[in-house]
Amino acid sequence: GRALAATEKKNHIVDGWYREKDPYSGRWDGGTDIVSSDLTLYAKWREIGALPDEYVPVEYLEALAGQKLSPGLKTLENVDRIVTDIRFTNMKPGDALSSYQVPVGSGSNAGRHWGMAYDPAAKKYGYYLEGDIWLHVDDPGARAAVDFEMVGGAPEVQGCRLTVGEEEVWRSIAHKEADYVKGSEFSLMNVGSYAASVRLYSAQVYFGGVKTADYVPCRNVKTGEFGVYDRIGEKFFASASEKGFTGGPDCP
After folding, report:
1. What is the pTM of this model?
2. Which residue from 8, 9, 192, 221 lies 20 to 30 Å from 166 (Cα-Cα)?
3. What are the DSSP calls for 12-48, one per residue?
4. What tens digit of pLDDT does each residue of 143-190 get?
C-alpha cells in the first residue's frame, strides 16, 4: 500500500481520514486497516484552535473539595505566567486564610501560592499571595480576570506580579533556596477539603513571553466527562482526582 499523501489547507489540520463523507463515517485506521483494492478516502478538516467533534465547550469548569486540574505544568520549566478568567464561590469567613489556590505549587512553601482567602483582621475577603492579603474585594464571588506572573527567571526569581482586573499589585519576594524549585507542579485549579469551589471560564499559559497553552472548559459528549481542552497542545485534561469535575451549561 501507499502512505496517505501530504494534504494542506490554510489554518486547518486533518482530523482523520474517512471512507464516506456528508456525513463522515468509516474512519480509516492506518495502523490496522488493510488496502485490498482501490480505495478513496476523504480528509476531514478541522480549523486550528477549534475543538474536536467529541468535545462541546461549556460556560465554565467547576472544581469542588478535593479536586484539582493538573495539565502537566512545571514551574520555570514550561510556565511562568497564567492568565485566568475565574470565580471563587461558597467562601466562608471561618475559613481564615484557607488555601483555595489556583495555581498552586507542590510542597509546603507558600511562595508559589495564590488564591482567595478571608482576612480576619479586616473582616473582608481578598486575593492573596504568600499568605498575605494583597487586594481586598467587596464581592468574593465576583468573576474576575486574574494574571499571575513570576518575574525574573531561573535560577533566580525576583518576585511575582498579581493583577486582578485593572488593579496591579507588586511585591518582591525574599527567596530561600527551596523557593520556586524548577519543575514543581503548577495546578490550574486545586481545592482543599473546604466548602469553597472554583469556577474556571478560561486559562492561558505563557512561558518566556510565548503563549504555550489555551484551555477551554468543555464536556466530552461520549463520556459526559468535564475538563479543559488545550487548543494549542490539542489535548483534553480531566480531574486529577477520583471524583470528576462538574461544569456549566453548553455554550451556544
Report:
1. 0.74
2. 192
3. EEEEEEEEETTTTEEE--TTT----S----EEEEEET
4. 989 888 876 655 555 567 778 888 877 665 544 434 555 677 778 887
